[in-house]
Amino acid sequence: MMSLNNLADGVRPREVWAWAMYDFANSGYTTVVITAIFNAYFVAVVAEGEDWGTLAWSAALAVSYFLVMLTAPALGAYADAYASKKRLLLASTIGCVLFTAGLALVGKGELYLAIPLIILSNFFFGVGENLIAAFLPELARGEAMGKVSGWGWSIGFVGGLLSLGASLAYVTWAEGQGQSAAQFVPVTMLITAGLFALAALPTFLMLRERAVPQLHLQGRGVVNEAFTRLGETLHHARRYRDLGHFLVCLVFYQAGIQAVIALAAIYAQQAMHFGTRETIMLVLLVNVTAAVGAFVFGQIQDRLGHIRTIALTLLGWIAMILIAWSADTPGQFWIAANITGLCLGASQSAGRALVGYMSPPARSAEFFGLWGLAVKLSAILGPLTYGLVSWLSGGDHRLAILMTGSYFLIGLVLLRGVNAERGRHAALLAED
């Protein structure tokens, strides 16, 4: 259990566990729907294997991320002003669970149903992801944010393993009964939605809303007030130049990460000719190594330094891209998958911790809304780049993954301009 020395005053370890359980709960959605099962099902069954299937999948995700970009900063500003992170988190959770369950209704060729459900489920997932991250500065001491974030993220990958493992068990049974993907994939959507709802319960029962409502702007409606507060943040952005610089850096390197998350199963099946069960086993392994990466790097990040930790993970991502691009045997691709897992857990956890480290505590939800905006912009760039390259090249998935890998190089270059301690000083100065 997390040591009290790492936690903010008045925070109990069980409350941090309840916070981390949301990572546990929502990881099933990204693992089963976005990474391992439904994405490949969308291309092969819903889009009936057409060359434009990967681009259609990427475009649907891009629309959902664009909607999050439009709303996340204002929702963050509203959550800070009204101390309503937990209430908004509940609404986003209900939305994601319901629309994920709705994916069970999607069959062969039913793009008209699949695309709206993906857009809506992923939109509510993205909103919830921002809100749960905004609790981090309330729970962890500044010098321990990397450790607490890594601990939570590692638990999250265990949740992804549980959902994917349950889905694999059902898929194995269903294939033994002679069922096709059109029959067993919809059931895995119900399994994922149910586990999400169940695992998120501790978060809403134990996690406290410590923020207090801030002075409201007289004569303005809720939406106008939220955007006014956001405008104030952007107007004073020069106080937080290192945070702003890092968010730009994050857009680029996360574009590569988001492409891998959204298209890993598609690459495995289209470029490496993996079957459904083999693809699920691959993603299971990635989740194990991701949990290890998040935990191990979380333990050392606060000592090694946020910037060095992220730089190491970006070098790992570049190595993974080169191995996956050149792999001509399953063994080589499994090596790339292991590197993916280690880098995925470490880089996601480290990025979240660094944003929390350089954010003014009283406006954490607002700044994590900006973080969400940056991540969702990257989630548009990365998968769309992959989808466009694969479509324009006539289905060359190796070229597509190589092109998206360039985002990691750009991120590594931009990271050199970020000074974490200067950014922390600016955040604390804003609270005085």
Characterization of the model:
- With 432 residues, the protein is mainly α.
- It has a single domain (10-207, 222-431), classed as Growth Hormone, Chain: A.
- 80% of the residues lie in helices and 0% in strands.
- It has 18 helices and no strands.
- Helix 2 (38-46) crosses helix 3.
Summarize the entry for a quick read.
The chain is mainly alpha-helical and 432 residues long. The chain contains 18 helices and no strands. It has a single domain (10-207, 222-431), classed as MFS general substrate transporter like domains (Growth Hormone, Chain: A), CATH 1.20.1250.
Features:
432 residues, mainly alpha, Growth Hormone, Chain: A
Total helical elements: 18
CATH class: Mainly Alpha
Please indicate the count of domains: 1
* CA radius of gyration: 20 Å
CATH fold assignment: Growth Hormone, Chain: A
Helix content: over 70%
CATH level-4 homologous superfamily: MFS general substrate transporter like domains
State which percent range the strand residues make up.
under 5%
Oligomer: single chain
Q: Classify the secondary structure makeup into a structural class.
A: mainly alpha
Number of strands: 0
Head-to-tail CA distance between termini? 33 Å
Average pLDDT for all residues: 85
Largest sheet: none
Blueprint (SSEs and pairs):
Blueprint: H1 13-36, H2 38-46, H3 53-82, H4 85-102, H5 111-133, H6 136-139, H7 145-176, H8 181-199, H9 201-206, H10 222-235, H11 241-270, H12 276-304, H13 306-326, H14 330-357, H15 364-392, H16 397-404, H17 406-415, H18 420-431
Helix pairs in contact: 1-7, 1-8, 1-11, 2-3, 3-5, 3-10, 3-15, 4-5, 4-8, 5-15, 7-8, 7-12, 7-14, 11-12, 11-14, 11-15, 11-16, 11-17, 12-13, 12-14, 13-14, 13-16, 13-17, 15-16
